[in-house]
Amino acid sequence: MFEFKTDASKTNLILKITCVFWIFTKLFCYNLWHTDRLFPVVPPFDFLENIPNYIHLTLFYFALAGIAFVGFFPKNKFVLGFTIVVEITSFILDQSRWQPWEYQYILTFLFFFFYHKNPKQFINYFSFLLAIIYLNSGLHKLTGGFLYTVWEGMMLREFFGFDKSLIRNIYVHYAGLSLGLIEFLAALGCLFAKNKKIYALLLVGMHIFILALISPTGLNYNSIVWPWNVVMILFILIVFYNATSTISFKNLLSGYNKIPFVVLGILPFFCFIGLYDNFFAFNLYSGTTKHFSICVDENKISSAYQPFISKNRKICGDKNVISGNDWALKEMNVVIYPEERFYKGIIEIWKEQNPNSEAQFYIYQYPYKPEDYVEYK
Q1: What is the pLDDT of residues 343-358, one digit of tens each?
Q2: End-to-end CA distance of the chain
Q3: Could you tell me which of 341, 333, 348, 359 has the C-alpha nearest to residue 32?
Q4: Are 32 and 96 within 8 A, CB to CB?
């Protein structure tokens, strides 16, 4: 099981799985790929603003068709390159699309474009990508933000239903750090160990738990990453379960191969000092990213916003609140892009579209004390 005679057969299977799950995921968050929605479209550059909706939709459908074609005819380099260009163009038109799974799938296509005639090198880079995802994800969980918001809040209180006295036990509290540590060590094993089976099984077990946590039988949260967790299990088993050799850093550091090595192996660590975007550094479920909320008076905004309004006296007092993340999840089925410049872009668009709303805007971070809520005018 999961044994392959050649790297070419392994590469083809990885590409086909990527195509299937990429199409499914894009369809599952359809509202992300057009502009006919309430949630603002915030491109990274001003000159990309006001691109007509038909351009966004055309790119979306071309991308779907291209991904499907590549799945059946992976050796057609023209269609492969065209699909990559179309997807990257769509990607840069709205920062909400800068999701970690989208970034991973684009990189997979890029690796195949450059190394389709060298399957061994493709597997080398794809293995490196997977290991780096877990390495960074594990490191970002070794924080107080993860312990309080994800470990205690999501897992112990909401999922397992433990009472506060147990959760507040110091040993139980710090036990949560073991999750990030296990993920980090498993990533190191996939990078450097000769026999990777045990490390692969640890990561598979982690994904099974995540699926149980966020599935309909658990917290029923962030459904767009359910298929991503499934596909990661498949990739781990294909790439690492029966692997008996280490990743070749000699190849990773040769010639132009240094470029993806720098992008994946070096730049993500700048996220720890605030100089690199969280999702590009695979900072996932760590509890350390900034949050965004809008305090509103329901009588001064359009009724179209009603599905996204909730109560939160801690932030808004007598006003109601639109949580940026809840808004993104309900309308686009993706989490909000957790960067301060993105939030400021939303604020500017909100002011233009709702000039008389008298809304208040807050960007905040763990530990969520009232004095930590910064209002943006």
Answers
A1: 999 999 999 999 999 9
A2: 58
A3: 333
A4: yes
